[in-house]
Design a protein that fits this description.
Helices cover 35% and strands 15% of the residues. By secondary structure, the chain is an alpha+beta fold. It has a three-stranded antiparallel beta sheet with strand order 1-3-2.
């Protein structure tokens, strides 16, 4: 299922997400694969919606709260 992405949306690339979350590339991969963070794949690169990542959300991601997932497995 494809999602429409607003044209004015700002995105962070993987490198900036690693710095923001203070995590390794493999940790970011695991967060993405588990559905813990939202992302889109564009031209072989993963991009993450900037406005989503507030301090509260970052804290919950780092603590790996399973109730905050963005895939069908969290339901």
């Amino acid at each position: 299922m494809e999602q429409a992405v607003p044209h004015d949306e700002e995105f962070l690339d993987s490198h900036r997400m690693e710095r923001l979350l203070r995590c390794s590339p493999s940790k970011l991969y695991r967060l993405r694969k588990s559905g813990a963070i939202p992302c889109v794949l564009v031209g072989g690169r993963y991009l993450y919606p900037k406005k989503f990542f507030t301090q509260e959300v970052i804290r919950s991601i780092v603590q790996e709260d399973p109730s905050k997932r963005f895939d069908s497995y969290g339901s």
